[in-house]
Design a protein that fits this description.
Distance between the termini: 54 Å
Strand content: under 5%
Structural class: mainly alpha
Helix content: over 70%
Largest sheet: none
Length: 165
Amino acid sequence: MTEKGQQHIFEQWLSQHKALVFKVVRAYAFTAMDQDDLFQEISIQVWRSVTAFRQESSVTTWLYRIALNTAIKWVRKERKHQQDGNLEEVEHVLQENKMPVDERLVWLYEEISRLDEIDRSVTLLMLDNFSYKEMADILGITESNVGVKINRIKKHLISKSKKYS
C-alpha cells in the first residue's frame, strides 16, 4: 500500500468514526490536554494499523479495539507519571463543547470513569449496541464473561443512580 493510499484510508476512517474515538477519549481522559494527548495516541495507532487491517472484522470493530487498547495503555502509562486526575474537571471539559450539558450524561460519564478499564470498555461497547460476540472479540474475553460483566455493571449503575436521584 502506498503512503497516499494509507493516508486516504486513515482520513476516511477517522472522518467516519470520529464519534467512536471521541467517546473512548472522553471515557479515559478528563482534562482537555489529556484528551488531546490520548486522541493523538489513538490517531497514531490507527495510522499504524491501516496496513495491518485484513478485513476479518468490520472497520468499526477494528477501530474500537485500537482505541480501547490504546486508551488502556495510555492510562497505565499516565498513572506511572502522575496521580489520578480530578474527576470534578469532567464538567468543565463538557462545557467547552458550547452545547447544553445534560447532567445525566455528566453523571454517567463520571460513573463510567470510576469503573476499571475492562468494565469501562464493556460499558462503552454496550452503549454502542455491540453484540456480546463483537465485544468479546474486541476485548479478548469470552462472550459469557461479557454477559457477567454487563450484568454487574448494570446492577452497579442502577444502585448508583438511586443515590443520584
